[in-house]
Amino acid sequence: MFFAKLLNLSVGVLSVLAVPPSRKTCGTEISEADKVKAEKHFAAHKVVTVAGNSSTRAATIDVYWHIVSRDATLSGGNIPDSQITEQIAVINKAYATTGLSFVLAGTDRTTNVNWFNRAGPSTTEQTAMKTALRKGAARDLNVYTVGFNSGSAYGLLGYATFPWDFESKPSDDGVVILYSSVPGGTTAPYNLGHTLTHELGHWVGLYHTFQGGCTGSGDGVADTPAEASPAYGCPTGRDTCSSAGLDPIHNYMDYSDDSCMTEFTPGQVDRLKLALSTYRSLSV
Predict the structure, then answer these.
(1) Which residues are known to be catalytic?
(2) Sequence-separated (6 or more) residues with CB below 8 Å from residue 247
(3) Which residues form the Peptidase M43 pregnancy-associated plasma-A domain (predicted)?
(4) Which has more pLDDT, 12 or 44?
(5) pTM of the prediction?
(6) DSSP 263
């Protein structure tokens, strides 16, 4: 879905997604040492709040949406409220099996050419933007829409922090996405809203389905078949590892086209619930 690089943030990681000229791909990397460190911390601090199947319970996450534009036009990033409403509906549908629901708690609009063009991981523009705009606590989702037009962030689709990053750097917490990736945007065929679905997956504690390739512990979820590399498009029947199961091309944490993405596995749901109770004080 996205071409990217992964930046280490203390014990956590930051997912970054980008758009090359002809297709959306991703190359998210985390060293095994950093992953082991994060997973050890998760295992040692895991907070289990619900026994058994908790599918009948629900937790509401407030979403604070920050529209950062270069001017007052749609092409300048000033997306309408209707697209945000559609995007909230998309993530609610995608996360319906998790017990999570998302409610728009507020929208603000900021015209800032530097933030719009250059905000990206570890940039001064990002720091200034998030310091000025972020709202809420660990359990609240902050979404920033920008243009990724220049600098180190040029061409990105989005990036997100992981839940275990919050304690060390709360002001950095949240998801930043390309404004034209929301439903009805112009980044076809990646304009159905699943850039946010995918990045939100990292925000709740999920790795990519191809994490670790065909060996090792992979994404830490037993029911996502091993996958050697990200899937592009919607390659039905793709099978890149000798272990059981076809590649999970329909999973929101792979990199297939938006129209190909349809599911999280029960194992991913269990993991994100534990991550949310451990790091975001959310019981689902």
Answers:
(1) 199
(2) 209, 225, 227, 231, 235, 238, 239, 240, 241, 254
(3) 186-276
(4) 44
(5) 0.89
(6) B
